[in-house]
From TrEMBL:
Residues 88-183 form the Toprim domain. Gene3D superfamilies: 3.40.1360.10, RecR Domain 1 (1.10.8.420). Keywords: DNA damage, DNA recombination, DNA repair, Metal-binding, Zinc, Zinc-finger. This is Recombination protein RecR. PANTHER family: RECOMBINATION PROTEIN RECR (PTHR30446:SF0). It comes from Candidatus Coatesbacteria bacterium RBG_13_66_14. One of its GO terms (molecular function) is zinc ion binding. May play a role in DNA repair. It seems to be involved in an RecBC-independent recombinational process of DNA repair. It may act with RecF and RecO. GO terms for biological process: DNA recombination; DNA repair. HAMAP family: RecR. Belongs to the RecR family.
């Protein structure tokens, strides 16, 4: 029989993505054996994350609020704040961690737009939930010449990319799709840097892939 505090911790850990009962148990007992200083450091890091980190008001990437800045001030991520970035290219990805993955390839220096997910009709996730109207406004009001669709080549990823293509096509920008390097059905989340670099370098205009 678990003591209440440990039981509560394990239940909280199991709510984390990818953490099942066994993993939660290992983490929980590791924390139990850790020093108070180690446990406190972890707790403070989690609280600081919630207090200071959020999503960029421009692109949806992860952004951090500097100390002393009002929590009412819109957040801006390091990519959007960097004047050296190529503002003529926009890479559309699913999640903030995809930004970091593409950054590691070293071949892309443009801007990003993070959707925060993919179409999922069963979960009620569609164009409104992904903020696609805001994406269209950003593209129409910017100086973008190319928009790169970098969603995973899964059923949901392709459906989302197709919708975005139809949404942005009237705006006159070149729409491309990441190509070689990712097999059909693969997930961008699990692709290595070389695969992502090949997928990005081998991109083709949307609709021409497979011809």
């Amino acid at each position: 029989m678990l003591v209440p505090s440990l039981q509560k911790l394990l239940a909280a850990l199991r709510r984390l993505p990818g953490v099942g009962p066994k993993s939660a148990q290992r983490i929980g007992y590791h924390l139990l054996r850790a020093t108070r200083e180690e446990a406190t450091e972890l707790a403070r890091a989690v609280v600081a994350l919630k207090d200071r980190v959020g999503l960029c008001s421009v692109c949806g990437n992860v952004a951090e609020r500097a100390e002393g800045v009002s929590d009412k001030t819109p957040l801006e991520c390091p990519v959007c704040a960097d004047p050296r970035r190529d503002s003529s290219r926009l890479l559309i990805v699913e999640e903030p961690y995809n930004v970091e993955a593409f950054q590691k390839t070293g071949v892309y220096d443009g801007l990003y737009h993070v959707l925060g997910g993919l179409f999922d009709p069963l979960a009620g996730v569609g164009a409104v939930e992904l903020g696609l109207d805001a994406l269209a406004r950003r593209v129409s009001g910017g100086s973008f010449r190319e928009v790169i669709l970098a969603t995973s080549p899964t059923t949901a990823g392709e459906a989302t990319a197709s919708y975005i293509h139809e949404l942005l096509k009237p705006l006159g920008v070149t729409l491309t799709r990441i190509a070689v390097g990712l097999a059909p059905g693969a997930d961008v989340d699990y692709a290595d840097e070389i695969s992502l670099r090949l997928a990005l370098e081998g991109r083709r205009e949307y609709g021409s892939i497979g011809r």
